[in-house]
Please model this.
Amino acid sequence: MEKDSRLKPYLLCIFSYFVLGCMVLTINTINSSIITEYGWKDSQGALLITFMAIGNLFMSIVGNLFTDKIGRNRALALYILMAAGGLGIMSILHTPGLYYFLMLLVGFAWGGINTLVNTVPTELYNGSSSRLNIMHACYAIGAVLFPLIVGFMLKHGLSWRAPVWVVLLLFAIQLLSTFLVRLPTSMASERSKSKDKKTFAFWKELSFYLSTLTFLFYVGVESAISTWLSPYLAQENAFFATVPAQTMVSLMWLMLLIGRLVFSALGTRIPSKPLLVFLSTGFLLGILGLFFFGRITSLAILSVILTGLSMSAVYGVAVSVGARYVKASAVASGIMFGAGGFGSAIIPYISGLVSDASCLRAGILSLSVFLTLLLLSSIANLRTATNDSSDSLS
Model:
């Protein structure tokens, strides 16, 4: 496709990812308010995130197959309506038991949107992680802004429902944009129509399984730390109890945003696989820093900064490393994105269970186990040989 014809679909994906970042971080940061309002345990609040993640998992696996059946624009519009419907009903009903089902519905939308908007730029720009990092930077902008908006609204006496209504307004704008911009036809769908046997060649490649593990561990820990960072620091350090609880989450995502912009600017200068090892190491050190130095204000802030910077390009680089699988097969992309959904379903819940059994500090430490596995899978991926032309930050 020519550059001009790619721009509008790419911009729609960017805006869609921005709105997704607003939604996910709003849900993560209002979670503690919901726990307080209904007198839940930490594990009950984590289970709310888990139900959303289960929906994400399901649609991450089947999302591209479903989208190929009904068309990308129709699918995106449907996902938007599902997310808006789930959050809208949740905001007007005071029936907490129903929230789990509504979060499942929102999770379906999350997985569908996430899979769709990562696949389209991967096809349009041949797996360029610079393009993906720009898009993910817009997710981070939403992730920076909305914890601050949530904190501001809660500090001024508004309910956790108020920021949800702001997200619903963004969904309305996104839905209108979906009717105005035509998304391209799936390349994987066209290949499957021609019955290309290479579509399923990924089953024989170790790199595919290692890339899948990258999604599982990274997305799971990202979801967990976004949920537990604020209450953890407020519990460990008196200073963080005096500032809006969501400030540190916003700082983490601000660092993540800066990192994504920097790595996008670096372009092809850094190979993707070594970069993944470097970022995984930094992420692990950041979480360990939070565990060991959470009570020392300056070191806790530095640990938050290191965590955010290290998280910045992991997802975009992981998509770039697995770009040829995403382009070749809806099944392969579904498995990889689905692994991320599975991680976001189980890892926050596991850390919540550890927190209930011991303390929130132990729950934070449990994340280092998954990050160690992320680092090991990234190192192993260095040794795999692939024919992926996008194995650099291009």
About this structure: The chain has one domain: 3-382.
